[in-house]
Specification:
The chain is α/β, with parallel strands linked by helices and 332 residues long. The protein has a single domain, classed as Rossmann fold (3-Layer(aba) Sandwich). Helices cover 36% and strands 21% of the residues. Helix 5 (173-181) links the parallel strand 5 (161-171) and strand 6 (198-204). The longest helix has 24 residues, at 2-25. It starts with a helix and ends with a strand.
């Protein structure tokens, strides 16, 4: 009888400890925001004197005015600083200064004034090496200016930016930009555009280089990366297929890496609205997954939040995904 009681007590204690662990894990919610927060933003312009180039910005501001981590976002081909609002507003609500770049030459000016029949031609021409090089130089130019504004007492961003905690992200051509400034080695001459101020990166619709191997391109990445794509994530420009997108994850070594593949998600799943030519009905849960995983990733690797890391490396992601979504990670 005593032995039975001892076993029962141990079982009860185990159940209680598991309940405590579950309760603690359940306190972290990357989708939770203050209902009193009303998203706000300011539109600014960075002038890069060295290139005589203007880079428009939309900066989403968090509710508080204390120094907060900075997250950059680079739009896809033909986009602008006003795109993917759902990301900027949520990240700001979670306490980040979300800085959305606009890249002249590969932004919406490419197609806006073109007749309908000429728009695809114009977009194809804008997907060029020249515009890639402009983009990867836009990122450090913006970071330089943000640091200046942060230190200037009279600027509206003064003292609001924690420039030691910088995340980089982007979609499509913006993902290519993100990869290049976050650790990628280019196939020609082993050139890099890595900016050491970036400490974590998210690529929405990532892609492998057209020439050379993914292993050589991404094998030397030293910071955490999160990759998001879909089973039908095929870009209308550039012929980038799902195989190219999925080749990035296995090529990463030496730093934490994460990948979600959303079931039936097309290229536009990571934007605010459908694109011409979409065939699948948009799934509202895709944005829920995107917001939850990206926020947990930023919290874990920009803020050093242990609860966020436990959520990300535990059952958290599956709690927001649907059964057919694929998920893998390696937290080195």
């Amino acid at each position: 009888m005593k032995g039975f009681c001892a076993i029962a007590v141990r079982a009860l204690l185990l159940l209680l400890s598991l309940a405590v662990v579950e309760a603690c894990a359940g306190t972290y919610d990357p989708l939770a925001v203050d209902v009193a927060y009303h998203p706000s933003h300011v539109d600014l312009n960075v002038h890069d004197a060295a290139r005589d180039r203007d880079i428009p910005l939309r900066v989403y501001l968090p509710p508080n005015t204390t120094p907060e981590p900075v997250v950059l976002f680079s739009h896809g081909l033909g986009g602008s600083r006003t795109g993917s609002t759902f990301l900027g507003e949520h990240w700001a609500a979670r306490g980040y200064v979300a800085v959305f770049l606009q890249h002249p030459g590969s932004d919406d000016s490419v197609w806006k004034d073109e007749p309908g029949r000429e728009r695809m031609r114009a977009m194809n021409q804008a997907a060029s090496l020249d515009n890639f090089l402009l983009r990867v130089q836009d990122v450090p130019a913006v970071l330089n200016q943000l640091a200046i504004w942060n230190a200037a007492k009279t600027n509206q961003l003064a003292g609001r930016l924690d420039m030691k905690k910088v995340g980089m992200s982007g979609h499509s051509f913006g993902a290519v930009t993100t990869e290049a400034v976050s650790g990628e080695t280019l196939p020609v001459g082993g050139q890099t555009f890595t900016d050491p101020r970036i400490t974590a990166a998210i690529a929405f619709s990532p892609s492998s280089p057209k020439t050379g191997s993914a292993a050589k391109a991404f094998g030397s990445v030293q910071i955490p990366w999160m990759l998001m794509t879909g089973t039908k994530d095929v870009a209308p420009i550039g012929d980038t297929d799902v195989v190219s997108r999925l080749a990035v994850y296995p090529a990463l070594h030496g730093a934490p890496k994460y990948e979600v593949v959303l079931h039936k998600a097309e290229h536009s799943a990571f934007t605010d609205r459908a694109l011409p030519g979409d065939r699948e009905q948009r799934n509202p849960n895709h944005h829920r997954v995107i917001l939850a995983l990206s926020t947990a990733f930023w919290d874990a690797y920009l803020r050093g939040d242990a609860d966020a890391l436990a959520w990300l490396n535990g059952p958290g992601p599956r709690s927001v995904m649907e059964p057919d979504d694929r998920w893998q990670f390696s937290a080195h």
